[in-house]
Design brief:
alpha+beta, 6-stranded antiparallel beta sheet, about 60% helix, about 15% strand, coiled coil, GAF domain-containing protein
């Protein structure tokens, strides 16, 4: 049983043994080594106890990788020692039997590995001891270094405290030195003053002794001088108080100026848009210069004095409660002045709003006018109440004769010159005027058999522009205000009413122009209807000539029917026929084209038997039916205007071709000739 256990043990044990360079040895050598190792158990136990102590010491410190490797080797050594003890016991008991067993070689190899392990262990123990000594040395050195650092840190703190104490002492000494120097200077100055006083007193005493001055009189004079000195001191204090009060007011004004400057800067930053820049050319009070309805009513604040502007700005910015608190802190007289000003402003705004409301009502009434005469009559009658003036007249321009016209209360038309008086400046400069202080120059010159100048003590002249504001239609003249000059409120009302009147006048003119155009079209239709009812060509020819006279105002007209390659006319109720080779009329029939000849007498194709004899331009056009066959030809001059133009000239015209016919006369003639050709093609003679 013991032999089998030994074999089993030897078969497993080499797996846990680290063979480090084991070599084959002879049996006697192995036996000697085995004999030598029989005395090892006691040494191994002592080694294990020593190793356990060293292991405890190592675990207490910071273990590194080499120490951990040594610990592993020690553990393996202890395990091998236990197996070796067991092996020695077996060998001692079965010594004779083992000599003949084949496992001797294994035992020999095991012993060799144990010897190598011991050698490695001793080397590792030596290294471990060396490392422990090095570690102790480094730890001692580190402790010394830390101790020295702590000592140096404490010394540094103490030195810093000493430096701070010394610096504070030095600062105190410097301050004391400065104080002493100041005191020394003051004492020197006092000493000099005292010396001067002593010298003055000595001189006075010498003067008194030498001149025998009465001391009692001198004392009375001194008392008088002392009283005057005290009075001067009191006056000086009072002046200083006034200076301080004025300085306080100056500081307040500076704050107000800075606030206004900030508001101006903010307005400049906000008003970068071109339209707003156009509105504010110089400032908010240049209403007539801008002549546009402002976006706000700031002009009513800007036109006030600076103090009043500040009051209104404070009320707008701070609110009612803060403004009342500020007023309550002032004197009774200041409170009374400010409250009076606020009440006056309230009444002023009430009057302004009532007049503005009345103006809006009047504008609504003006928009209901059906004719220009009614509009002028109502404007002249209603506006004096709003502007608080004596008279107000709306003058409109007639471009046909270059005169201004208006209406009296009796609806009698009156006229005036456009290019004379202060109103001429408005037409030339395209700018409104607010005139006060009794101007020497006449406002306007009326025409009544002779020129009659009209003067006034104050006047407000407002131009009435077209929709595009490029041409002036007329002027609204407001004369003799209740005050010395018209205020900014009246200027504001005038800008509104002038813009509104321009729109109303444009609407009325367009309406009357449309009515005249409808009348013209109805006239054309009536003439074509009469021509269509003609029974023969002679009647048709006479009615065609009559239609050109009525519609276009022409007096020189020739009309030819084209029949069998000939021109057929009915002059003086006689039928006449001409060849197509005659005159411009024949050429127009042959070529089927329209001609306009400036000087017909110089034309090669001119024939006095067929063509008109005149120095005016000639219009010749053939009449074509649907089959493109010429059925007639018309020849007339281009001097007279259309009857529609002559009738429209009685309207308000302010520019060339603005209210005249929209198309040229030649195009109107061409269109009418085409209608005439269609009418003749439907007549069966």
């Amino acid at each position: 049983m013991k032999h089998s256990q030994l074999v089993h043990l030897l078969s497993k044990q080499p797996q846990s043994i680290d063979y480090l360079g084991a070599t084959q040895m002879s049996t006697p050598r192995a036996y000697q080594q085995s004999q030598q190792t029989l005395t090892l158990p006691h040494k191994l136990t002592t080694l294990s106890t020593a190793n356990s102590k060293e292991q405890r010491l190592l675990t207490e410190g910071n273990e590194d990788l080499e120490v951990q490797k040594i610990k592993d080797l020690q553990n393996r050594l202890i395990s091998r020692c236990t197996t070796l003890e067991f092996l020695i016991q077996v060998i001692t008991t079965q010594k004779n039997e083992l000599n003949s067993l084949p496992t001797i070689q294994k035992i020999e190899q095991l012993l060799l590995s144990i010897v190598n392990t011991f050698q490695n262990t001793t080397k590792n123990e030596i290294q471990l001891g060396f490392l422990n000594r090095e570690q102790k040395k480094t730890s001692m050195f580190n402790k010394q270094v830390l101790r020295k650092e702590a000592e140096l840190f404490d010394r540094n703190k103490s030195l810093q405290q000493e430096v701070e104490i010394n610096s504070s002492r030095s600062n105190k000494l410097i301050e004391d030195n400065l104080k002493l120097q100041k005191q020394l200077k003051q004492e020197k100055n006092l000493n000099e003053i005292n010396i001067k006083k002593i010298n003055a007193l000595e001189k006075r005493i010498e003067f008194i002794v030498s001149n025998d001055i009465n001391i009692f009189e001198m004392r009375s004079n001194l008392t008088i001088l002392m009283k005057e000195n005290e009075q001067l001191k009191r006056d000086l204090e009072r002046k200083n108080q006034e200076v301080e009060r004025i300085q306080g007011k100056l500081n307040q004004y500076q704050l107000v100026v800075s606030r206004l400057q900030k508001t101006i800067d903010n307005l400049r930053k906000k008003n970068e848009d071109d339209e707003i820049r156009g509105l504010i050319k110089k400032d908010d009070i240049e209403l007539l210069m801008n002549f546009k309805i402002p976006q706000n009513l700031d002009f009513r604040i800007v036109c006030q004095k600076l103090d009043h502007q500040n009051l209104l700005n404070d009320l707008c910015e701070k609110g009612v409660v803060n403004t009342l608190q500020q007023i309550s802190q002032q004197s009774q007289e200041g409170q009374k002045q400010q409250i009076t000003y606020y009440c006056n402003q309230l009444l002023s705004f009430k009057d302004f709003s009532e007049r503005l409301n009345q103006l809006l009502l009047q504008m609504e009434e003006f928009s209901n006018c059906q004719t220009i005469e009614d509009l002028i009559f109502n404007v002249n009658r209603q506006l004096p109440q709003i502007f608080k003036c004596e008279t107000a007249k709306l003058w409109l321009l007639e471009t046909k004769n270059g005169l201004l016209y208006s209406y009296l209360e009796t609806r009698q038309q009156i006229k005036a010159l456009q290019d004379k008086g202060l109103i001429a400046d408005t037409f030339k400069l395209y700018q409104a005027q607010n005139i006060g202080s009794k101007p020497k120059k006449a406002i306007i010159y009326r025409i009544n058999e002779s020129e009659q100048p009209e003067y006034a003590k104050s006047a407000l002249i407002l131009p009435i522009f077209c929709i595009g504001q490029n041409i002036i239609r007329g002027c609204l003249i407001i004369l003799n205000s209740e005050y010395e000059q018209f205020s900014f409120d009246e200027e504001y009302f005038g800008i509104i009413i002038s813009s509104f009147l321009g729109n109303i006048i444009q609407r009325l003119v367009d309406k009357e122009s449309w009515q005249i155009a409808q009348k013209y079209r109805s006239l054309m239709n009536n003439q074509l209807t009469d021509i269509l009812r003609s029974q023969n060509k002679q009647i048709a020819s006479e009615r065609i000539k009559l239609s050109f006279k009525r519609i276009f105002g022409f007096q020189m007209i020739r009309f030819y029917f084209v029949e069998n390659e000939q021109l057929l006319s009915f002059e003086d109720q006689k039928e006449q026929k001409f060849s197509l080779d005659y005159g411009l009329a024949g050429m127009a029939v042959r070529n089927k084209q329209r001609y306009i000849v400036n000087d017909i007498k110089r034309s090669v194709n001119f024939n006095p038997k067929v063509d008109l004899t005149t120095i005016l331009p000639i219009f010749v056009q053939p009449l074509l039916n649907k089959q493109d066959v010429v059925i007639g030809v018309i020849e007339t001059c281009l001097k007279n205007k259309l009857s529609i133009d002559m009738e429209r000239e009685h309207l308000l015209e302010v520019s060339e071709n603005l209210f005249g016919i929209e198309e040229p006369l030649t195009s109107q003639l061409q269109s009418y000739v085409e209608l005439l050709a269609g009418t003749l093609s439907n007549i069966k003679f």
